[in-house]
Amino acid sequence: MLHVLTVVLPVFGLLGLGYVSRATGYLGDRAGEGLSDFVFAIAIPALIFKTLTAAQLPEAQPWGYWLSYFGGVVVVWTLGAQIARRFFAVSHVEGVVAGFTAAQSNTVLVGIPLILEAYGPEGAVPLFLLVAIHLPIMMTTATVLAEGRGVPLRRIVRQLVMNPLLIAIAVSVLARQVGAPLPGALKTIVDMLGAAAGPCALFAMGIALRRYGAGDEPLLSVALTALKLIVHPLVVLVLATRVFTMPNVWAGVAVLFAAMPCGVNAYLFAERYRTGVAISSGAIAISTALCVLSSAFWLAVMGIR
A GO CC term (predicted)? Predict the structure, then answer.
């Protein structure tokens, strides 16, 4: 419990700094929007490039592992979007944001340190395999869903081709094929930009929390939190231990990965479309606050003390 608390407190610290900066008038809403744009267009792409070019992929793909985790993603994303649309009468894109928020895990800021503490070096391979493909798949899915209804195929393709995150993925794949390492100075720049993604995103989200709070529908944020912290890891646990066969460590990593609070990338996606920001920011704040207790519970379920 103490370790979970030490991991989560810095997250709240950065959120709090952004919130106080906006509440006191030291920074305005434009600062948060500009910072969000920087994270989405520059910092996160740098982080994707750094992660994908360094990932060590297995010779045979662990399909049971992928299907267990992303099977849970499909369930909670669908439930989140349907709950938002049916009971809270949100727009199509807001429904996409709600589903994305329910399914997106906070990996870099909370998941990585917690899972490595739980499983040590043995958990590093399954953890970073999932980290490498988690964000690209989630962001691509959200973009296609947001752009895909009633929109010409040409526009969808243009939006995808111009998406900074997908450009980063394409460049990363090309860099892996070429195999030439980045020059020292350029690598340092990429590493610095990638390192800035998490802190800047959290600070910007703190500004958004002051601006939007829990939104007009705080019950929706609570529902998305329940999907993220309870339903997602439960579905993954069933799939990883009852449906598919994999080592216990791999199953544990998948469950803990799913049990992490709502990820900040859902907020960045909402900011990008300038809609559903209150939905994502509220759920992220609530789920991050409750993940101290929920993480301790899932650690106990997986036999980690």
Answer: plasma membrane
